[in-house]
Amino acid sequence: MNAPDIALTSEELTTLEHEVENLIGFVNESMSNRSDISELIGMSSTEMMQDNHRNSARFILTSVSIGDFRKLKDTMPWVYATYHNHGFSYQYFAIVFETWIQAVHKFIDPPLSEKYAAIYEWLSEHHKDWIELSQHYTSENIQPPKEWSRIQDQFLNALLAADTSTCLELANTHIQTHTDVQHFYLDVIQPSLYEIGIYGIIMRSVYPRSIWRHPLSLASCR
Description:
Elements: H1 10-32, H2 37-41, H3 46-66, H4 70-85, H5 90-107, H6 112-125, H7 127-134, H8 146-160, H9 164-174, H10 178-206, H11 209-212
Protein backbone atom coordinates (compact mmCIF):
# COMPACT_ATOMS: atom_id res chain seq x y z
CA MET A 1 0.00 0.00 0.00
CA ASN A 2 1.69 3.19 -1.19
CA ALA A 3 1.28 6.39 0.81
CA PRO A 4 0.20 9.49 -1.14
CA ASP A 5 2.89 11.46 -2.93
CA ILE A 6 1.89 15.10 -2.56
CA ALA A 7 4.20 18.11 -2.65
CA LEU A 8 2.92 21.58 -1.80
CA THR A 9 4.46 25.02 -2.06
CA SER A 10 5.01 27.24 0.96
CA GLU A 11 2.11 29.42 -0.18
CA GLU A 12 -0.19 26.40 -0.38
CA LEU A 13 0.87 25.27 3.09
CA THR A 14 0.12 28.75 4.43
CA THR A 15 -3.35 28.58 2.89
CA LEU A 16 -4.01 25.23 4.56
CA GLU A 17 -2.83 26.54 7.91
CA HIS A 18 -5.23 29.47 7.62
CA GLU A 19 -8.16 27.23 6.68
CA VAL A 20 -7.60 24.24 8.97
CA GLU A 21 -9.85 25.58 11.74
CA ASN A 22 -12.65 26.09 9.20
CA LEU A 23 -12.21 22.52 8.01
CA ILE A 24 -12.34 21.20 11.57
CA GLY A 25 -15.40 23.29 12.40
CA PHE A 26 -17.26 22.09 9.31
CA VAL A 27 -16.50 18.43 10.03
CA ASN A 28 -17.44 18.79 13.71
CA GLU A 29 -20.76 20.43 12.90
CA SER A 30 -21.61 18.09 10.04
CA MET A 31 -20.90 14.95 12.04
CA SER A 32 -22.49 16.18 15.28
CA ASN A 33 -25.72 17.08 13.47
CA ARG A 34 -26.17 13.69 11.84
CA SER A 35 -29.32 11.88 12.91
CA ASP A 36 -27.38 8.62 13.14
CA ILE A 37 -24.50 9.98 15.20
CA SER A 38 -25.30 7.73 18.18
CA GLU A 39 -25.03 4.71 15.90
CA LEU A 40 -21.69 5.94 14.54
CA ILE A 41 -19.94 6.70 17.83
CA GLY A 42 -21.90 4.52 20.27
CA MET A 43 -21.77 5.62 23.88
CA SER A 44 -18.72 7.81 23.27
CA SER A 45 -19.10 11.57 23.56
CA THR A 46 -19.09 14.01 20.67
CA GLU A 47 -16.21 15.67 22.55
CA MET A 48 -14.08 12.56 22.00
CA MET A 49 -15.08 12.54 18.34
CA GLN A 50 -14.15 16.20 17.93
CA ASP A 51 -10.81 15.58 19.64
CA ASN A 52 -10.14 12.98 16.97
CA HIS A 53 -11.07 15.46 14.23
CA ARG A 54 -8.71 18.11 15.56
CA ASN A 55 -5.82 15.72 16.16
CA SER A 56 -6.14 14.05 12.77
CA ALA A 57 -6.39 17.40 10.94
CA ARG A 58 -3.21 18.66 12.57
CA PHE A 59 -1.42 15.36 12.04
CA ILE A 60 -2.26 15.29 8.33
CA LEU A 61 -1.28 18.94 7.90
CA THR A 62 2.07 18.24 9.54
CA SER A 63 2.60 15.16 7.36
CA VAL A 64 2.01 17.32 4.30
CA SER A 65 4.34 20.03 5.60
CA ILE A 66 7.28 17.67 6.04
CA GLY A 67 6.43 15.58 3.00
CA ASP A 68 6.35 12.26 4.87
CA PHE A 69 3.21 10.11 5.15
CA ARG A 70 4.77 6.98 6.60
CA LYS A 71 3.55 7.67 10.13
CA LEU A 72 0.06 8.47 8.84
CA LYS A 73 0.02 5.09 7.13
CA ASP A 74 1.34 3.34 10.25
CA THR A 75 -1.06 5.18 12.55
CA MET A 76 -4.36 4.43 10.82
CA PRO A 77 -4.66 0.88 12.25
CA TRP A 78 -4.10 2.36 15.73
CA VAL A 79 -6.79 4.98 15.16
CA TYR A 80 -9.30 2.39 13.94
CA ALA A 81 -8.49 -0.07 16.74
CA THR A 82 -8.53 2.49 19.55
CA TYR A 83 -11.72 4.29 18.61
CA HIS A 84 -13.55 1.11 17.61
CA ASN A 85 -12.74 -0.32 21.03
CA HIS A 86 -14.48 2.72 22.53
CA GLY A 87 -17.70 2.28 20.61
CA PHE A 88 -17.03 3.97 17.27
CA SER A 89 -18.35 1.99 14.33
CA TYR A 90 -16.14 1.36 11.33
CA GLN A 91 -18.75 3.18 9.26
CA TYR A 92 -17.90 6.35 11.19
CA PHE A 93 -14.49 6.45 9.52
CA ALA A 94 -15.89 5.98 6.02
CA ILE A 95 -18.33 8.82 6.58
CA VAL A 96 -15.87 11.19 8.22
CA PHE A 97 -13.38 10.82 5.35
CA GLU A 98 -16.10 11.88 2.91
CA THR A 99 -16.99 14.79 5.19
CA TRP A 100 -13.36 15.96 5.19
CA ILE A 101 -13.41 15.88 1.40
CA GLN A 102 -16.54 18.05 1.39
CA ALA A 103 -14.89 20.48 3.81
CA VAL A 104 -11.77 20.76 1.66
CA HIS A 105 -13.78 21.60 -1.45
CA LYS A 106 -15.94 24.07 0.48
CA PHE A 107 -13.14 26.17 1.94
CA ILE A 108 -10.19 25.67 -0.41
CA ASP A 109 -10.01 26.63 -4.08
CA PRO A 110 -8.61 24.46 -6.89
CA PRO A 111 -6.05 23.24 -7.66
CA LEU A 112 -5.00 23.03 -3.99
CA SER A 113 -8.35 21.51 -3.03
CA GLU A 114 -7.78 18.58 -5.40
CA LYS A 115 -4.31 17.97 -3.99
CA TYR A 116 -5.41 18.07 -0.36
CA ALA A 117 -8.62 16.12 -0.91
CA ALA A 118 -6.51 13.38 -2.49
CA ILE A 119 -5.15 12.53 0.97
CA TYR A 120 -8.64 11.87 2.35
CA GLU A 121 -9.58 10.05 -0.84
CA TRP A 122 -6.57 7.78 -0.28
CA LEU A 123 -7.66 7.17 3.33
CA SER A 124 -11.18 6.39 2.15
CA GLU A 125 -10.02 4.05 -0.61
CA HIS A 126 -8.12 1.98 1.95
CA HIS A 127 -10.94 1.90 4.52
CA LYS A 128 -11.23 -1.89 4.37
CA ASP A 129 -7.46 -2.23 4.65
CA TRP A 130 -7.42 -0.10 7.82
CA ILE A 131 -10.13 -2.32 9.31
CA GLU A 132 -8.19 -5.49 8.55
CA LEU A 133 -4.89 -4.07 9.80
CA SER A 134 -6.53 -2.73 12.96
CA GLN A 135 -7.60 -6.25 13.91
CA HIS A 136 -3.93 -7.27 14.02
CA TYR A 137 -2.66 -4.03 15.51
CA THR A 138 0.14 -3.98 18.08
CA SER A 139 1.76 -0.96 19.69
CA GLU A 140 5.04 -1.85 17.95
CA ASN A 141 3.65 -0.25 14.80
CA ILE A 142 4.30 3.23 16.20
CA GLN A 143 7.46 2.65 18.21
CA PRO A 144 10.40 4.89 17.20
CA PRO A 145 13.69 3.52 15.83
CA LYS A 146 16.15 2.44 18.52
CA GLU A 147 18.36 5.50 18.07
CA TRP A 148 15.40 7.77 18.91
CA SER A 149 13.76 5.54 21.53
CA ARG A 150 15.61 6.97 24.53
CA ILE A 151 14.84 10.53 23.42
CA GLN A 152 11.19 9.63 22.96
CA ASP A 153 11.03 8.20 26.50
CA GLN A 154 12.48 11.41 27.91
CA PHE A 155 10.11 13.55 25.85
CA LEU A 156 7.08 11.51 26.92
CA ASN A 157 8.00 11.81 30.60
CA ALA A 158 8.39 15.57 30.18
CA LEU A 159 4.99 15.81 28.48
CA LEU A 160 3.30 13.89 31.26
CA ALA A 161 4.92 16.22 33.79
CA ALA A 162 4.01 19.32 31.73
CA ASP A 163 7.74 20.11 31.77
CA THR A 164 7.97 22.57 28.88
CA SER A 165 11.63 23.38 29.50
CA THR A 166 12.72 19.78 29.05
CA CYS A 167 10.58 19.43 25.92
CA LEU A 168 12.29 22.43 24.36
CA GLU A 169 15.74 21.40 25.55
CA LEU A 170 15.37 17.98 23.92
CA ALA A 171 14.22 19.59 20.68
CA ASN A 172 17.07 22.12 20.64
CA THR A 173 19.65 19.46 21.43
CA HIS A 174 18.60 16.86 18.90
CA ILE A 175 17.40 18.98 15.97
CA GLN A 176 20.38 20.08 13.92
CA THR A 177 19.28 19.36 10.34
CA HIS A 178 16.09 19.21 8.29
CA THR A 179 16.20 15.41 8.57
CA ASP A 180 16.37 15.74 12.34
CA VAL A 181 13.17 17.81 12.24
CA GLN A 182 11.36 14.97 10.50
CA HIS A 183 12.71 12.34 12.88
CA PHE A 184 11.96 14.41 15.95
CA TYR A 185 8.36 14.92 14.92
CA LEU A 186 7.69 11.43 13.57
CA ASP A 187 9.77 9.40 16.02
CA VAL A 188 9.66 11.46 19.21
CA ILE A 189 6.66 13.82 19.33
CA GLN A 190 4.10 11.71 17.52
CA PRO A 191 4.61 8.41 19.41
CA SER A 192 4.47 10.38 22.66
CA LEU A 193 1.17 11.97 21.69
CA TYR A 194 -0.23 8.56 20.73
CA GLU A 195 0.55 7.23 24.17
CA ILE A 196 -0.96 10.30 25.80
CA GLY A 197 -4.01 9.86 23.58
CA ILE A 198 -4.50 6.34 24.89
CA TYR A 199 -4.07 7.66 28.42
CA GLY A 200 -6.65 10.35 27.76
CA ILE A 201 -9.22 7.91 26.44
CA ILE A 202 -8.78 5.72 29.51
CA MET A 203 -9.13 8.72 31.83
CA ARG A 204 -12.30 9.82 30.06
CA SER A 205 -13.76 6.39 30.66
CA VAL A 206 -12.72 6.10 34.31
CA TYR A 207 -13.19 9.56 35.80
CA PRO A 208 -16.29 11.74 35.91
CA ARG A 209 -16.46 14.41 33.23
CA SER A 210 -16.27 17.14 35.89
CA ILE A 211 -12.80 15.91 36.86
CA TRP A 212 -11.64 15.48 33.26
CA ARG A 213 -12.45 19.11 32.49
CA HIS A 214 -9.49 20.14 34.69
CA PRO A 215 -6.62 17.91 33.52
CA LEU A 216 -2.93 18.54 33.75
CA SER A 217 -2.09 20.77 30.81
CA LEU A 218 0.03 19.08 28.14
CA ALA A 219 -0.69 21.41 25.24
CA SER A 220 2.18 23.73 26.04
CA CYS A 221 4.68 21.05 25.00
CA ARG A 222 3.12 20.35 21.63
